[in-house]
Write a structure and sequence with these properties.
By secondary structure, the protein is α/β, with parallel strands linked by helices. It folds into two domains: about 5 and about 15-145, no CATH class; about 165-310, no CATH class. About 35% of the residues lie in helices and about 20% in strands. It contains eight helices and 14 strands. It has helices spanning about 25-40, 90-100, 125-135, 165-180, 190-210, 255-265, 275-285, 290-300, and strands at about 5, 10, 45, 65-70, 75-80, 105-110, 140-145, 210-215, 215-220, 225, 230, 240-245, 270-275, 305-310. Helix 4 (about 165-180) packs across helix 5 (about 190-210).
Amino acid sequence: MSLMCTTCGSPLSAAPDPALATVSCPKCLAALLTKINGALAGSTTRVAGVFPRKRATLPVGAYTATTVSVGGVTWAACRGQQDSNAARLVDATVAHRTFVGAPHAVAILQPPAGASKHDRGTDEYLRAYQAAAWHGCGVLFLREGAPAAEPAWQLPAPPVDHRRFLDALESDIRAALAAPESIPSDFLHSSTDAECIVRPIVHRLLFKRGYNRAESQYPSFWRRAATDGSWRIEGGDSPRRIALEVKLAEDIDWPLSQPVEALAAHDAVLMVRIVTPGVGKSLVGASPAAKEALTNLVSALPIRSIDFNSAV
């Protein structure tokens, strides 16, 4: 028996997403994107790649935003150029989606202004990024400028979970950070200082599990991205590639874009934040929407967000 779209009756090549048939049907998806692109073309709403703190409106920034309704479902959408120094389209999109109360959103990344010395990213990387953005953020991600013959978007399978492996690794990291003298007093002044503490701990724990260091830079969309550490293992059921991001006060108000970008090039991502008294105050004042979005991301994807209180 052939599969048919329950909305428009078009034939389908695979079973539709039971929660949202629109993204499974090429014809319905094309209609959605046509409506969104038309709305974006006439929109004067500009938003930043940041979640607001105690504000009734979103911060103004470089991304164009709009909202449309298709089949009784509200969709938020954001579009903007790649910025090598602030690649935050996913954060802008989820912040806008949360603000307007839409269950799903579309993010359209445009090439950077002028010529770029980096290419647009491989199709394999794009598919992995789309999987992370959809399953972790509810965002249908598109890269503008793709060849016309290439499907704009296909419903991606979720990334492999690796939950048991990451739970055990997180427990070991927390125990190592809690060991006496692991964090020298009056040492933490920047994220570079935090990296000097966290990276050797993570390396030691991963080396015991058979991992070796790997190249920390990787090609993203029209830019080179870099982790604070990358490791690789050959064979087995564990994640083949693991990325590390170390934080102090960075990215509290835009927590999504970096781990999504890193997961597209790796099989798991560790985000370790050492919480000093000053950082703790920033975390307390962070946007509730940003905290919820990060919680949802971590629960859905092979990403761990480890906040370790250095004062305890």
